[in-house]
Design goal:
CATH topology of the largest domain: Metallo-beta-lactamase, Chain A
CATH architecture of the largest domain: 4-Layer Sandwich
Number of strands: 6
Structural class: alpha/beta
Number of domains: 2
CATH class of the largest domain: Alpha Beta
Order of helices and strands: EEEHHEHHEHE
Helix content: 25-40%
Largest sheet: 4 strands, mixed
CATH superfamily of the largest domain: Ribonuclease Z/Hydroxyacylglutathione hydrolase-like
Number of helices: 5
Mean pLDDT: 77
């Protein structure tokens, strides 16, 4: 299986009892095969994969699924409305936009994810500073980051 590399494309996994909910299927989904993340995989039960939009960086990890699970009940969901799908083809939010949403929603913490591997750390730090000027409790995601919800 191909390695997800030093900075994987976006994928977020949430385990709820015997159900796994995965938001987007970037190369980050391959981390689920690693020792520190295998506890997230249900031995039986359902896997729900939610695709925010169909950019390649959100779907390339679909190729990792057979190596992760044998015999799962898997549900893959995307946009059912063709107009929403068209709108989603250009769907990425800026760090500044995400910080405004976090501030206005009154959340405790903002984690910026989906960091492009085509940019260096200086670019990401600049992006973080822009977001923190609006919402100070902003952090950059890194591969393998976990939070208890």
């Amino acid at each position: 299986m191909v390695s997800p590399g030093p900075r994987a494309t976006t994928s977020l996994a949430v385990r709820e009892e015997n159900r796994l909910i995965v938001c987007d299927a970037g190369t980050g989904i391959a981390h689920l095969r690693e020792e520190g993340f295998q506890h997230l995989l249900p031995e039986s039960g359902e896997i729900h994969l939610l695709l925010s939009h169909l950019h390649l960086d959100h779907t390339v990890g679909l190729s990792f699924l057979p190596a992760l699970w044998s015999n799962p009940t898997a549900w893959i969901r995307g946009h059912e409305d063709p107009e929403q799908l068209k709108a989603g083809l250009n769907a990425h939010t800026s760090a500044e936009g995400a910080a405004r949403v976090a501030r206005d929603a009154g959340v405790e913490e903002l984690l910026l994810s989906h960091l492009t591997p085509l940019r260096n750390d200086d670019f990401h730090q600049e992006m973080l500073a822009t977001a923190r000027a609006i919402f100070p409790r902003t952090h950059l995601c890194r591969d393998g980051l976990s939070r208890l919800l």
